[in-house]
Design a protein that fits this description.
The chain has a domain of 212 residues. The relative contact order is 0.16. It is globular. Strands 1-2 form a two-stranded antiparallel sheet. It is mainly alpha-helical. The protein is 72% helix and 1% strand. Helix 12 runs parallel beside helix 14.
Length: 331
């Protein structure tokens, strides 16, 4: 007798989860809503990085794209009164231009693996140093506070966190849709072939340069948008918290720890990093500055060794049906 067909619960579970997320701001205290907003924004940024990382294109320069996305709309608003609705696309375009300037020569001359990671690492540090050096404009290491406008859609500022929660939720869902589009399209097959062997992929007719540059541009643009919204939400920017090597390493750690091969993996990584940061802040205050980066490094090594597919990878392995052992052949 054949067993009954398995019931697919993914769609009802997704609908129920979305309903819970929509209702969340109406039943959650302000502090926890603040944490959830950060998880959504960081989850979006980590998802943007995983578009590259899951195919072996390890970038340590996404702190540069996030920093540009955060500072460009803030500077345009503070000095020129330009609405963030125009400043955010401007930051995104600048990040895309920088991604092309760095990515094209790297892909053209086949700078891959550790060398590509080092180039992007230098990019992240250059952007950090540039922001810090321009202290007369950006405030340097002291940071910069945006001009407050109260409740304003024009300035994209809302004292009521529920408004920004709605924006963060929509953007996070958009990031998941982009991830799903790449995962379910022909681009995935091409990028996987490129990550395995570029010469073999080219021999099959795949435009290696175009595919690598495309995913880099998309990843940089999304990261810039995430940085813009993060800066708008906090209304205070510091180069150490929105750009530089430390931010880039945090992005890499969270995506790997959560599971960059799973749709919700980067968001799980965001929950892990936010919980870690808040826990250290509550437990140690200012007595253990730099603890998060130290722990990120240690945990990253442990995850790479023991959990290379991250937390979601372990969960998927536990949920996978176990195959019954084959019957012994009759003698």
């Amino acid at each position: 007798m054949n067993p009954p067909p398995a019931i697919n619960l993914r769609v009802p579970a997704a609908i129920a989860g979305l309903a819970c997320l929509v209702a969340l701001p109406f039943v959650t205290p302000a502090y926890f809503l603040h944490i959830v907003i950060q998880i959504l924004l960081w989850g979006f940024i980590y998802t943007a990085w995983s578009l590259m990382g899951r195919f072996g294109f390890v970038s340590l320069g996404h702190g540069a794209f996030m920093g540009i996305g955060a500072y460009v709309p803030a500077l345009l608003w503070n000095y020129e009164g330009v609405t963030p609705w125009l400043g955010i696309p401007a930051g995104m375009l600048l990040s895309v231009l920088l991604a092309v300037v760095i990515g094209y020569p790297c892909f053209r001359f086949r700078v891959i693996g550790h060398y590509f990671a080092l180039v992007t690492l230098a990019l992240s540090e250059v952007v950090l140093r540039t922001i810090t050096a321009a202290r007369d404009i950006t405030g340097g290491s002291l940071g910069m506070t945006q001009k407050l406008a109260g409740h304003s859609w024009y300035a994209l500022q809302f004292p009521d966190k529920r408004y920004f929660y709605g924006i963060a939720l929509v953007v996070w869902l958009g990031g998941l849709l982009v991830w799903r589009w790449v995962d379910g399209g022909i681009e995935r097959e091409a990028l996987e072939a490129i990550s395995e062997d570029e010469e073999a992929a080219a021999s099959l007719g795949i435009n290696v340069m175009r595919e690598k540059l495309r995913v880099t541009v998309v990843s940089a643009a999304l990261t810039s948008v995430g940085g813009s919204l993060f800066g708008q939400y906090l209304a205070y920017l510091n180069p150490e918290t929105v750009s530089g090597i430390a931010v880039s390493l945090q992005i890499v750690f969270a995506a790997i720890a959560g599971g960059m091969y799973a749709l919700l993996g980067p968001t799980v990584g965001a929950f892990l990093t936010i919980a870690l940061n808040e826990g250290l802040r509550v437990w140690f205050g200012t007595n253990f500055i730099g603890a998060a980066n130290t722990i990120y490094g240690i945990l990253l090594i442990l995850f790479i060794i023991f959990m290379p597919r991250g937390i979601m990878g372990v969960i998927e392995n536990l949920r996978a049906p176990r195959r019954a052992p084959a019957p012994a052949p009759a003698e």
